[in-house]
Write a structure and sequence with these properties.
Low-confidence stretches: 137-146
Oligomer: single chain
Strand content: 15-25%
Distance between the termini: 43 Å
Number of strands: 11
Strand order of the largest sheet: 6-5-4-3-7
Structural class: alpha+beta
Shape: elongated
Length: 326
């Protein structure tokens, strides 16, 4: 059905773009094969004029939402016709200066995930074919030594990316860091955000009736799409990003003391407020403490020991036990 609708919309757009005069509903109904098949006047089982009018109005609204400028014109006899003038639907020439072209070239190399890498590369080739200048050698030299990457290893990324784009609810099994077994979640996905090399999904958890953030590496099994629309409003993208930051990273509200094995845990050392030796092979660090710090510390395994506060130490121990229990 989705393919049939896409083909019908394409044919309607081509008819409206290809005509030199406004076409009436009757003419469009007789010219577009999908309308002819669905509303044959000689077929008693075919849809009525009212059904055709509803479909045509929906199709027209869909094309306008996609950006096609459709004019409604009434002739001297009072008959209404439709057309899409080419000059009203033609994009202006796209021009980029060398700095903008370099930025686009750099952005196209960011994605490591195969599907997005192909799309980015193809878009860049089309822009260059249309006359976009090549990046200057000086810029290429400066950026070639350190090239940005966004790694995407989780199988859940692509279906969730499409679900966010299409505003489709999803269902997946999710294992919390403190749980031994996964449980099913029904989620209205809002956006995907990368934080400290890990991908997170922000959305509305239908079962809990609240906003939630999910780390993609903890999604097990397949992400399944569900029919229907979102039941909760989607917040502004900047608000969602702040939520992911505070949930997946940490908005520090106090400090914690940890022991860290010497010559390890450099990301922790970079955030440390104070560092001092704590015996052979160990250092003691004071670091900002907020939501999400326990999950981050677990990633360093036996190289980290939490000294205080006690609740952070208990959270880290619970997560380590859950990992050990499988």
């Amino acid at each position: 059905m989705a393919i049939a609708k896409a083909e019908r919309l394409m044919n309607l757009a081509l008819c409206l773009l290809g005509t030199r005069r406004p076409l009436s509903k009757r003419e469009l109904r007789e010219s577009i094969e999908a309308y002819v098949e669905a509303f044959r006047p000689t077929d008693p089982s075919a849809g009525s004029d009212e059904s055709f009018n509803r479909m045509f109005e929906r199709d027209k609204d869909d094309l306008r939402e996609l950006g096609l400028v459709i004019e409604t014109v009434e002739n001297l006899d009072g008959e209404v016709g439709y057309l899409a003038r080419r000059d009203s639907n033609r994009l202006p020439p796209i021009t980029f200066d060398p700095e903008e072209a370099a930025a686009l070239g750099l952005a196209a190399r960011v994605w490591q995930q195969a599907r997005l890498a192909g799309a980015a590369s193809g878009a860049l080739q089309k822009l260059r074919a249309a006359g976009m200048p090549e990046a200057e050698d000086a810029y290429e030299t400066q950026t070639s030594a350190l090239e940005p990457r966004i790694p995407v290893h989780e199988a859940a990324f692509e279906p969730l990316m499409l679900a966010c784009r299409d505003r489709r609810p999803v269902v997946f099994d999710y294992r919390k860091a403190s749980a031994a077994r996964p449980e099913q979640r029904q989620v209205e996905p809002w956006t995907l955000e990368c934080w400290r090399g890990h991908w997170y999904l922000a959305g509305w958890d239908r079962d809990r009736g609240a906003e939630r953030v999910f780390r993609l590496s903890r999604i097990t099994g397949r992400v399944r799409s569900r029919a229907g629309r979102f039941t909760a409003p989607v917040p502004d993208v900047s608000t969602v990003r702040e939520t992911v930051e505070s949930w997946a990273g940490e908005t520090a509200t106090r400090t914690a003391r940890i022991r860290l094995r010497t010559d390890s845990g450099y990301p922790l050392r970079a955030r440390a407020l104070a560092v001092q030796e704590a015996g052979p092979g160990w250092d003691e660090l004071e670091i900002p403490y907020g939501h999400g710090l326990d999950a981050w510390l677990v990633e360093f395994g036996p190289d980290v020991v939490v000294l205080d506060p006690a609740d952070l130490r208990a959270d880290v121990m619970d997560r380590l036990r859950a990992v050990a229990e499988g």
